[in-house]
Specification:
The chain is of the alpha/beta class and about 270 residues long. The chain folds into 2 domains: about 130 residues, Quinone Oxidoreductase, Chain A, domain 1; about 120 residues, 3-Layer(aba) Sandwich (Rossmann fold). It has 7 helices and 11 strands. The strands form 3 sheets. It has a 5-stranded antiparallel β-sheet with strand order 6-3-4-5-7. Strands 10-9-8-11 form a 4-stranded parallel β-sheet. Strands 1-2 form a two-stranded antiparallel ribbon.
Length: about 270
């Protein structure tokens, strides 16, 4: 099969488009013919081994074999199933997030555990579905499983027009929050269209210096150092970054409650 691989850390120049063996299907896995994948910041960090701690997870001097094909978000069709798999059948359209399952989305085929996949809604194209998993799960974990946002709470989302932020705005609204979106001027209207009750152009207004307080501030873009302590004074709870592994959530609940606008915006 064809795949985009890397055998040493570095810039995108180290990526190669080449023939590699099709993965061998295990009894408890699904072989997916990948129709679409998406690139996330996580792929960039793994490619460059930045931060340095990536090397302790993926290989110190070079990426281990199981990490040499990036791409944690996939959408495609089930090509074959292991004998112990009951969740899917051949021909099912699926999508999911496989960062915990060895990546591998930048290839024609990916073997994955069924627990990382769900059925693709007919209303989504493969390309749209592949843009959902990591970004939406990151937002969902930050809002539901870490911050436990409740109806009526005031939530500020910094980086509201980025990949995670666009989902965070919609999920926060679905949870009943009053949402303030912080983004650039060109993305103020898209943020409103996604459901934000209030919008702030970060180039014109420092939200940490106003009088308004929030129940939750979620930062999906790094705050300038002089903003961080000020921001803490404006929230009832500490700033949250929505990192997926800070608190466990039932994996089969992660991707199912999704009814979202899948547009991806730049901050």
């Amino acid at each position: 099969m064809k795949a985009i691989t890397f055998t040493r850390y570095g810039s995108p120049d180290v990526l190669k488009y080449e023939d590699v063996p099709t993965p061998t299907l295990a009894d408890d896995q699904v072989l997916v013919k990948v129709h679409a994948s998406s690139a996330n910041a996580a792929d960039w960090h793994l490619l460059r081994a930045d931060p340095f701690l990536v090397r302790f997870m993926c290989g110190f001097t070079k990426p281990q074999a199981k990490y040499q094909i990036l791409g944690g978000d996939i959408a495609g069709v089930v090509e074959a199933i292991g004998k112990n798999v009951t969740e899917f059948k051949v021909g099912d359209a699926v999508f999911g997030e496989t960062f915990d399952d060895g990546l591998g989305g930048f290839a024609e085929y990916k073997c994955a555990s069924p627990k990382y996949l769900v059925a693709k809604p007919e209303s989504l194209s493969f390309e749209e579905a592949a843009a959902v998993p990591l970004a939406s799960v990151t937002a969902l974990h930050g809002l539901r499983y870490i911050s436990n946002v409740q109806p009526g709470q005031k939530v500020l989302i910094n980086g509201a027009a980025g990949g995670v932020g666009t989902y965070a705005v919609q999920i926060a609204k679905a949870l009943g929050a009053e949402v303030t979106a912080v983004c650039s001027a060109r993305n103020l209207e898209p943020a409103r269209e996604l459901g934000a009750d209030h919008v702030i152009d970060y180039a014109k207004e420092n939200f940490t210096k106003g009088d308004k307080r929030y129940d939750m501030i979620l930062c999906y873009q790094r705050l300038p150092s002089d903003w961080r302590l000020q921001a803490r004074a404006h929230t009832e709870r500490n700033i949250r970054h929505g990192r997926r592994r800070q608190q466990a959530a039932p994996r089969n609940h992660v991707l199912r409650p999704v009814s979202l606008d899948v547009r991806q915006q730049e901050v």
